[in-house]
Amino acid sequence: MAGHSDSSSSEKKSSEAMNDLPIFSAENMQNNMKVIYYSRTFMSIIGGVIAGILGFTSLMGFVFYFLVMAITSFGLIAKAKFSVHSYFDSWNRIILDGFMGGLMSFVLFWTFAYDIVHIF
Amino acid sequence: MAEDLVLDTAIRDWVLIPLSVVMVLIGILRYFVSKLMLSSQVPDPKIVKEGQVIVRARNLRAAANFIPPKSFRSRRVYFSNEENGLLFVPKGQAQNAQAQMFSDPNMAMDMMKKNLSMIIPQTLTFAWVNFFFSGFVAAKIPFPLTQRFRSMLQNGIDLSTVDVSYVSSRSWYFLNLFGLRGLFSLILGEENATDDTQRMMQMSGFGFDPSKSLGAEKDGLDILQHEWALPKFEHRAEAVLKKLIR
């Protein structure tokens, strides 16, 4: 049980499943947080470009952003093999973290792509 | 949209793209300049010692439940003892440390340099944008906004019937400013100096660090209740070993 290490993924086990008491390795937690942040930023940039090219406007665009975030969350959860508690300390982290920062990048690239493709 | 303006391709070529490219390049430049300008200041040994004491106290607080009650209590007394406890700092002395830090010319220069390296490129770019790129519609943002944003976003444009979605290049500059933060964190790896809010928080936290946080740590340590979390560790060790054998 302890020798199970995932060297191909970049997420590290941050807590051993003790009987009652979760112990967190702070360094691994931080690394996992970084991975989430990078994934979200990247996906929001790509999502922004896609939304711009497809010509989404206003509400549809924001719905698309939520969709992209949901896909990112799902991908992260699947990468953590659905046992979220052994990689993060709460559900909120993997679902909501980096939401707002991603939003700004999304809007920027969405505007950019939309203008280049549709207006000019 | 009601009216769909068609904008000149030249705007796209000569405004949007150069502005974004310039901002990215300035960000990268600032990152490298901040790396070069990292002056090595000799840290004051007293401050370093206090910092380490704080770290130690924090570790004690975090891992308090894993050591037996008696040893936790003895460590706590070591820290918060009235006479020679490490965390107990008389009021007068605490203020002194903080004042000294601000009057220290070296440290003040450092903070000034960091501040300037953040503010100057932003100011310069903003002035450049205003000078060259004002007075025309630069981009269209894909979502509608209320009329109140008109004055903010459509600064050089003097037609009041144009849709608020058509913005001037100043707002494109601001959009870039916020949106490129994520991009910088991807390109430049960790530690990039482009995130203003983080820098400001760090800067305001640094000056007050030793004097107040000692008292805070002491209070935290005093409050902490000790719960012995490994009472049955012999049983658990037995269970783990049994699992391994099987």
TrEMBL record, chain A:
Belongs to the EMC6 family. InterPro entries: Emc6 (IPR008504), EMC6-like (IPR029008). It is found in: Endoplasmic reticulum membrane. It is a multi-pass membrane protein. The chain crosses the membrane at residues 35-56, 62-82, 94-114. It comes from Hibiscus trionum. This is ER membrane protein complex subunit 6. GO terms for biological process: autophagosome assembly; protein folding in endoplasmic reticulum. GO terms for cellular component: EMC complex. Keywords: Endoplasmic reticulum, Membrane, Transmembrane, Transmembrane helix.
UniProtKB/TrEMBL annotation, chain B:
It is a multi-pass membrane protein. It is found in: Membrane. The keyword Membrane applies. It comes from the Eukaryota. GO terms for cellular component: EMC complex. Pfam families: EMC3_TMCO1. The keyword Cytoplasm does not apply. One of its GO terms (biological process) is protein folding in endoplasmic reticulum. Coiled coil: none annotated. Its main location: membrane. The chain crosses the membrane at residues 14-33, 119-143. InterPro entries: EMC3, EMC3/TMCO1. Keywords: Membrane, Transmembrane, Transmembrane helix. Belongs to the EMC3 family. This is ER membrane protein complex subunit 3.
